[in-house]
Amino acid sequence: MASAKTETMRHQITGFSNPTIKRLRSLREKKHRKREGLFLAEGLRILTEALESGRTPKILVVVEDTELHPLAQKIEAATIAAGGDVIETSEAIIAKLSGKSNPQSIIGIYPDHPVPLEELDRSGSNIWLVAQALRDPGNLGTILRTGDAVGAGGLILIDDCVDPFSVEAVRASMGAVFTQQIAQARWPEFLSWLRNGSGELVGTSLNTDKDYQSVQYQSPTFLLIGNEAQGLPEEYEAECDTLVKMPMMGKADSLNAAVAASVMAYEVLNQTRQR
């Protein structure tokens, strides 16, 4: 159980019709997330990643009458210390907030944290991931997770991508939504920013014979991944310094966008480690 002190600082909510519960549940929709500037993250692992990255929830929701894991107790104490609210409620209400029939026992509500493109320090990493018009939140979250794994500087979302702070994307990121910088821009804005500094733009494409392992990538490398169904627009490919493709030995002509991003990122990382 939580300490007596933290328990006395909790607010108990028992009804589905409670305005706070309705508000928190509305964060599953993009328009409400944008209006509030908040998003929902669930599970001890993801919330622990957030805490280790220096982020505490504005609101923490825990299951009532449940002994919290020591890490969850730490998150609760940090939330209270930062002036956040702690709510205890039933498993059924937690399930409504989560949208899952077997939800995690802890949910955090955090401020979203997009970074303006001009504030990115491109010298901070050898690898940057750039995704154009991604539609699948699972792919976006997985690319964030890959970025964290390879030490990428962050993820730059081009044009109309799925919301990186959606429940599904946050879940797929496994906490990387808190460790990776996330910027959003239209293509002309990104291209102008990129060309005003160092960096090589590498696009993945079927319209080339250049094998991805035959290229010596320059630092920093910006890896551009296209839309899952359409790939990169022709005019975007024309602006790349290099186009590469991965060999496909079977009948499929391309990899899933998130898998392609992972393969490319690890190739760049491997070259960096060998220098």
Overview of this structure, please?
The protein is α/β, with parallel strands linked by helices. The protein has two domains: 108 residues, 2-Layer Sandwich (60s Ribosomal Protein L30, Chain: A), CATH 3.30.1330.30; 158 residues, Alpha/beta knot (3-Layer(aba) Sandwich), CATH 3.40.1280.10. Helix content is 39%, strand content 19%. A six-stranded parallel beta sheet has the order 8-7-6-10-9-11, sandwiched between helices. A five-stranded mixed beta sheet has the order 1-4-3-5-2. It starts with a helix and ends with a helix. The model has no long low-confidence stretch (mean pLDDT 94).
In a few lines, what is going on in this structure?
The chain has twelve helices and eleven strands. With 275 residues, it is α/β, with parallel strands linked by helices. The protein folds into two domains: 4-111, 60s Ribosomal Protein L30, Chain: A (2-Layer Sandwich); 117-274, SPOUT methyltransferase, trefoil knot domain (Alpha/beta knot, 3-Layer(aba) Sandwich).
Ranges with pLDDT <50 over ≥5 residues? none
**CATH superfamily membership of the largest domain, which one?**
SPOUT methyltransferase, trefoil knot domain
CATH first level of the largest domain: which class?
Answer: Alpha Beta
Percent helix? 25-40%
Assigned CATH architecture of the largest domain: 3-Layer(aba) Sandwich
Which range does the strand content fall in? 15-25%
- Backbone structural class: alpha/beta
Major beta sheet summary:
6 strands, parallel
Strand order of the largest sheet: 8-7-6-10-9-11
Task: Supply the number of structural domains.
Answer: 2
Mean pLDDT: 94
| Count of runs of 4 or more consecutive helical residues | 12
The CATH topology of the largest domain corresponds to: Alpha/beta knot
Determine Rg (CA atoms, Å). Answer: 21 Å
Secondary-structure element series: HEHHEHEHEHEEHEHHEHEEHEH
**Per the principal axes of the C-alpha atoms, what is the gross shape?**
elongated
Q: Care to count the β-strands?
A: 11
